[in-house]
Amino acid sequence: MTSLTSKLNENGQGASTRAVHGGAKRDKGFHAMTTPIVQTATYAFANTAKVIEFLDAKVYGGELDREEYARYGNPSVWSLERRIANLEVAEDAVVYPSGMSAVTSLFLTVLRPGSHIVMTDDCYRRTRQFCETTLKKFGIETSIVPMGDRDALEAAILPRKTRFIFTETPTNPYLRVADLNRVAELGKQHRALTLLDTTFATPVNLRPLEFGIDFVMHSATKYFGGHNDVLAGVIAGASGRIKALKDARGIFGNVIDPHQAFLVERGLKTLALRVRHQNASALKVARFLEDHPKIDRVYYPGLESHPDHDIACDQMSGFGGVVSFEVAGDINATSDFIDRLRIPYIAPSLGGAESLIEQPAYFSYYDLSSEEREAIGIKDNLARFALGIEDAEDIISDLEDSLTQVPARAAIGKV
Predict the structure, then answer these.
(1) Strand 322-327 relative to strand 295-299: parallel, antiparallel, unpaired?
(2) pLDDT of 6
(3) Burial class, 83, CB count within 10 angstroms (exposed 0-12 / middle 13-18 / buried 19+)
(4) Cα–Cα separations (whole angstroms), residue 238 to 101, 212, 213
(5) Of 71, 104, 292, 380, which has fewest CB within 10 angstroms of its CB?
(6) What's the pLDDT score for residue 11?
(7) pLDDT mean for each 10 residues of the chain (415 residues)
(8) Residue 319 near residue 283 (C-beta atoms within 8 A)
(9) What are the residues whose beta carbons fall under 8 Å from the beta carbon of 23, sequence distance 6 or more?
(10) Are residues 261 and 314 in the same domain?
(11) Partners of 218 in the beta sheet?
């Protein structure tokens, strides 16, 4: 496996240097330090000869430094794509107006009727819904296997039919970590493409393509944007595969607008600084919670108690900024605990400057009964804390103050 040192460096540059300069052109136009927002729907040509020159390059291959219509490309978007590709050590990247737009576009572009997907069970609920409902209408089947069960993963693969193996690392909400060497090996062995959603990790902590994974995707809304103010998604991989996605984007019409691209590129410049701070804060918070008598269990790959701790240590340079945990109490005690917190906002999402906390039983699974949630592993007393960039000591103090008011009971089931 490639060493973590080499993963964090390319041409002697670290993650922060590459986040600021990697993939960016020195001359951004108009003597600007930042990439200009090219706010246009169409592009003009000086004369017919320029039109023919452009079309020759586009149809027969050649250097293109412009477009004809904004659905096919935009300089602000190209700049963001180059920067993300550089961070992921990918040949190319394609951005979309949301993370869901990214993953659905990939599946709709690559899959055909009769195809099959293998997906782990601790994946984002909306992605799973898309695969099990929308894709099923097109004759595409999905098999769900338990996260971490290597034998079940291989057994679910259908020879000459399975087109994708898809998982997340870390997963939502239990922060499970996939063995990427094993996933890549199975993909090559069975000629299936591999897709990894590493929104929770970011390329600062993990770069899946270096393990042999075919595609990596992110909800760029989260850590890439970093300020809870933009929606975006991205897929990175080999240039030929990404070109097919860009061509399909021109047909689907799911293009990101230049201002969105500008906001995400701005966020990327501080990505490494924010993620490293969130890594450190999350580990401190996880250790505090694990030792607290009013917390039943903590889920964080940086803890020795986590089932994938060894894999995470081997693959990742940091464990991420999300900590999930079970409060010693019922659904109402957990809600009361969350309501008393002063620093985090009660909101979905993650990766921004502000800390966010949510109770998955309400935010993601409110339409299910308590028994139905329990059957898929979502407990009523589960909380997911997405740390921002506040001081860890202040967050811990806030948690402590709220936990003191949780009714005392024996920490039954504490692991």
Answers:
(1) antiparallel
(2) 38
(3) buried
(4) 19, 11, 10
(5) 71
(6) 54
(7) 38 74 72 86 96 92 87 94 96 98 98 97 91 96 94 95 97 95 96 98 97 98 97 97 96 96 96 97 98 97 98 97 96 96 96 96 79 81 97 97 84 39
(8) yes
(9) 79, 82, 83, 84, 85, 86, 87
(10) no
(11) 234
Torsion of CA 351, 129, 358, 333, to 10 degrees: -160
pLDDT at 374: 79
Task: Give the tokens for residue 397.
Answer: 């103090």
Contact 279, 143 (CB under 8 A): no
Alpha-carbon distance 314 to 206, whole Å? 11
Residues 205 and 123 in one domain: yes
The last residue of one of the domains, among 241, 268, 295, is 268
How many residues are recorded in the chain? 415
> Contact 283/302 with Cβ under 8 angstroms?
yes
What pLDDT is attached to residue 414?
Answer: 40
Classify strands 215-219 and 162-168 as parallel, antiparallel or unpaired: unpaired
H-helix segments, 8-47:
15-21
Q: If phi over 0 gives left and psi between -120 and 50 gives alpha, with beta otherwise, what is residue 167?
A: beta
Q: Quick one: 240 and 354 in the same domain?
A: no
Which tokens is 374 given? 């329990």
Would you say residue 141 lies in a domain? yes
User: Which of these, 200, 68, 197, lies nearest to 128 by C-alpha position?
Assistant: 197
Reduce the DSSP state of residue 29 to 3 states and report it.
coil
Query: Would you call 353 exposed, middle or buried from its count of C-beta atoms within 10 A (0-12, 13-18, 19+)?
Result: middle
Cis peptide bond upstream of 208, omega within 30: no
- DSSP labels, 200-222: TTHHHH--GGGGT-SEEEEETTT
Contact present, 122 and 171 (Cβ < 8 Å): yes
Report the interhelical angle of 258-268 vs 75-88 (nearest 10°): 30
pTM, full prediction: 0.90
- Count the domains in the chain: 2
Helices (H), 111-206: 125-129, 135-137, 150-156, 180-189, 202-205
pLDDT value of residue 3:
35
Domain boundary among 268, 291, 311: 268
